[in-house]
Amino acid sequence: MQSVKIDRFLRLGIGVLAVALVSVIYAAVHRRVELSPDGQVQGFVVKEGDSAPDFSITAENGRAVTLKNFGGKLLLLNFWASWCQPCEQETPSLSQLAQDYASKGVVVLGISVDKDPAAYRRFLQKYSPAFLTVRDLKIHEDYGTFMYPETYIIDASGRVKMKFAEAVDWSNPKLTQIIDSLL
Predict the structure, then answer these.
(1) Does residue 42 sit within a domain?
(2) 53 falls within a domain
(3) Where are the alpha helices (DSSP H) in the chain?
(4) Count of structural domains, the chain
(5) In this predicted model, what pLDDT tens digit does every residue of 118-138 receive, in sequence order?
(6) Alpha-carbon gap, residue 165 to 182, rounded angstroms
């Protein structure tokens, strides 16, 4: 009888610990909150429905790129890296989508997180993306992006309408229907 009570107690304890662990992991993945030195809350994972964090960078062609200068258009913001095999696989269909939808008010911006500028340039030479690309080491942190590729579909008001935390086949008719519905 004593061992039955201990067995039930252990099962209950393991169950409680499992629920606690899942809760902590979920919270860490979906809301990575930190405090800045001045005590302000910062650093969260952007998800659908959130306002997209603003950014300002200069592309290699000298163009100033900000979230606001895509006003009135649907922005596909894609974070990628040259060493990321799924990024390589995704680039051709993302390029085709950029070409097919440019006249419909869709802009694709690829932000490389490559630390090595030479690796970034080699990727561009090899895959010739048909969309604007820049290299930046900070913006992905503002979005809470640390796995690549990750793409945000941002509407004209700056709201994240969809988020894809994996490589996507942008030629998939279901995806193009979704994009058409957001135009």
Answers:
(1) no
(2) yes
(3) 2-30, 85-101, 117-127, 139-143, 173-182
(4) 2
(5) 999 999 999 999 999 999 998
(6) 19
